Amino acid sequence: MAAARIWIQAARPKTLPAALTPVAMGIAIAWRDGHFAALPAAAALVGALLIQVATNFANDYFDGVKGTDTEERLGPQRVVQAGLVPAAVMKRAFILTFALAAVVGAYLVWRAGWPIVVIGLLSILFGVLYTGGPRPLGYMGLGDVLVLIFFGPVATAGTHFVQALAWSPQALVAGLAPGLLGVALLTVNNLRDVEGDRVAGKHTLAVRFGVRFAKIEFLGSILAAAAVPVVLWAQFDAPAGVLFASAACLLGVGPMREVAQWQPGRRLSTALAGSGRLLVGFGIAFCIGWVL
């Protein structure tokens, strides 16, 4: 049981809604379009989950061996840095999990063709290079862009595509919302870790442009996500029920207030949990509003 808890901790379950929400939205759009297909939808959901967990394992491994994670970090404990899992074991774990994702992806490639090869390979490649390699993408401040794209339009429109076998402009635009909310989540993490990241040479946007920029980025991401359902309704013939998702962004008021008042040294745990609830609440409201 102790070992299981360690691996669950390493999988970072609080990050999983960022992977699952855009997939659920793609399924909802396909359902209303009459293109829902249970097996491809389930494979997309499982594949997204495996890639997210594998990426979390890889981040734990690379940040541990690089020395980025230290005992002074304000966020949740990382298992490699804490000595709970040997680095070599974690390396095998993320390779195996990515391999399992590739097995699931093979079915989706068989069904939907070469676009899924591109999406799958890039997702795995960026999952490793986010903190791995000689020039980690996350250390260069590119994490926000990658989250916006791959936890947004790629996931939502890709999930719709493997069911409908055609690209949907609605799904592409809709995917911007979970991508933006994923950026908001990442921004909370980067803001909390800004001092440690600066010392470790991890040049996130919060490090590059400062705390004020990160606070504005957080606020702007949530407001932009709230606007996406309005654009879908006004310009893309989306059902009016999708506007409930915009209303769900009121869940972000508390986190926005906490982030605005944040000072270095605070953990931002409430804002992080609230941002996660916002992402889940938005996804649920969107799916219900779109289907009904």
Q: Could you tell me how far the N terminus lies from the C terminus, measured between alpha carbons in angstroms?
A: 42 Å
Number of strand segments: 0
Averaging pLDDT over every residue, what do you get?
94
Number of domains in the coordinates? 1
Annotation field: number of helices: 15
Helix content: over 70%
Helix and strand content put the structural class at mainly alpha
Q: CATH topology, anyone?
A: Farnesyl Diphosphate Synthase
Q: What is Rg?
A: 19 Å
Low-confidence stretches: none
Give me the strand/helix succession: HHHHHHHHHHHHHHH
Shape: globular
Describe this structure in words.
By secondary structure, this protein is mainly alpha-helical. The protein has one domain (2-291): Farnesyl Diphosphate Synthase, CATH 1.10.600. Helix content is 74%, strand content 0%. Helix 2 runs parallel beside helix 15 (269-291), helix 3 packs antiparallel against helix 4 and helix 9 (176-192) packs antiparallel against helix 12 (211-235). It is globular. It starts with a helix and ends with a helix.
Please give a handful of descriptors for the protein shown.
292 residues, mainly alpha, Farnesyl Diphosphate Synthase
